[in-house]
Amino acid sequence: MENLFLNLLLIDSILIVIAVMMQPSKQQDALSALSGGAGDLFGKQKARGFEAFMQKVTVVLGILFFVFALALVYLSSH
């Protein structure tokens, strides 16, 4: 059972890395990085389409990561 959760945890961690790398960049130029992006503070729009889908996928994979990690800790302590 521990091996199953360990394998699921490894697969989930790889999928998290892929999901994060697939998300579109929010930074548009180097100037916004230096100024802290203050111009984008009030121009924030809700994510739509692919960006919203990738955010949801990342959240679900993150939750699964913690569930698998806690299950693995529980199984290894007993």
From TrEMBL:
Coiled coil: none
Membrane topology of the entry: Multi-pass membrane protein
GO CC annotations on file: plasma membrane
Pfam families: SecG (PF03840)
Residues that span the membrane, as ranges: 6-22, 53-75
Keyword list, A-Z: Cell membrane, Membrane, Protein transport, Translocation, Transmembrane, Transmembrane helix, Transport
GO biological process terms held by the UniProt record: intracellular protein transmembrane transport; protein secretion; protein transport by the Sec complex
Cell compartment(s), UniProt: Cell membrane
A GO molecular-function descriptor: protein-transporting ATPase activity
Superkingdom to which the source organism belongs: Bacteria
NCBIfam families the UniProt entry points to: secG
Function of the protein: Involved in protein export. Participates in an early event of protein translocation.
Annotated family: Belongs to the SecG family.
Protein name (Swiss-Prot/TrEMBL): Protein-export membrane protein SecG
Gene source species: Latilactobacillus fuchuensis
